[in-house]
Design brief:
By secondary structure, the chain is an all-alpha fold. 69% of the residues lie in helices and 0% in strands. It is globular and about 75 Å long.
Length: 310
């Protein structure tokens, strides 16, 4: 009997060469580390590209106007004595000058309804598209999803005219309705795809036990869809909170301006006051960072268990 040589390193041949296998893989640890190296370098590069600008904005927000205008933030590392000149003056000036406190509350008043209302409506719609049978269901779903490719700005003029007819421009409901309409298609798409991955046996058992659609939705589907709901909630919160275009068009500057407009007003003519803009920008990041930290575990589960599946 002869043994054929295939050129591949099997666990047996590797053991003969004295190289241990990775548990459950049959791959030598050296080869695995070699394959992971490009991925690790890629992740390191992406993290560096993200961290360096953020570090620059953070350091600039603590520098005085003279230091910020005379030298770059990176010069502090060449002259560490410059760190002793860092101050919180930009934050106090930005908060007082742009009234960031009231603008922060205005952003909350705009963002929270613009997140929860489409989330609830889209969850009902996704349940209907997934577990209910009615005429034209697939065509209606395709129409809703196809609206994702329509740019938002093509709808601004008719919406402004419609709001003007009912005197809605410059109010919070004007921003709510705009964000709800612009985000509804993606919400239905994400939630419907996630619900289609849920076990059908649980739904059938609920029907056999006599549960209505209302009971099935609130007691079974809604709790099991928490990862997808959290994923969309984070996306929608970040979009609405960081939005400037819709806020300028439908709310505008004034007493009801959100924090994005307030921060933008800190920037003077010819680019002056940008050290205040960095302080105001970091101040506006407090709420999104808090939301992401609270919901991050649901966010990862939602992305990896069906929220982005086709």
């Amino acid at each position: 009997m002869t043994t054929q040589t295939t050129g591949k390193t099997t666990p047996t041949t590797a053991l003969r060469r004295g190289r241990p296998m990775r548990a459950g893989t049959g791959v030598p640890p050296g080869r695995s580390r070699g394959r992971r190296l490009p991925a690790k370098l890629g992740v390191l590069l992406i993290c560096t590209l993200w961290i360096v600008p953020t570090l620059g904005v953070t350091i600039t927000s603590f520098r005085g106007v003279d230091d910020a205008n005379s030298s770059g933030w990176w010069t502090l590392f060449a002259h560490p004595g410059g760190f002793t000149h860092l101050t919180l003056g930009n934050y106090s000036t930005a908060i007082e000058q742009a009234e960031l406190g009231s603008a922060f509350l205005n952003s909350l008043a705009i963002t929270l309804p613009a997140v929860f209302i489409p989330l609830l409506v889209a969850a009902f719609a996704a349940y209907a598209f997934t577990f209910m049978t009615f005429k034209g269901r697939d065509i209606l779903f395709i129409v809703i999803v196809s609206l994702l490719v329509v740019p938002n700005y093509v709808a601004f003029v008719p919406i402004i005219k419609l709001y003007a007819s009912v005197q809605l421009n410059g109010t919070f409901p004007a921003a709510w309705l705009a964000h709800i309409g612009f985000g509804m298609s993606l919400a239905v798409y994400i939630l419907r795809n996630y619900m289609s991955t849920l076990p059908k046996d649980v739904i059938e058992s609920a029907k056999i036990d006599g549960a209505s659609h209302f009971q099935t939705f609130f007691r079974l589907i809604l709790p099991m869809s928490a990862p997808a709901l959290a994923s969309f909630a984070i996306f929608q919160f970040l979009w609405v909170w960081n939005d400037l275009l819709v806020a300028l068009i439908f709310v505008g500057p004034g007493e009801k301006q959100p924090i994005t407009i307030a921060v933008n007003n800190l920037l003077g003519q010819q680019g002056t006051g940008w050290e205040l803009v960095t302080a105001g920008g970091l101040f506006s990041m407090l709420a999104p960072i808090l939301i992401f930290l609270v919901l991050q575990r649901y966010f990862v589960r939602g992305l990896t268990s069906g929220a982005v599946k086709g």
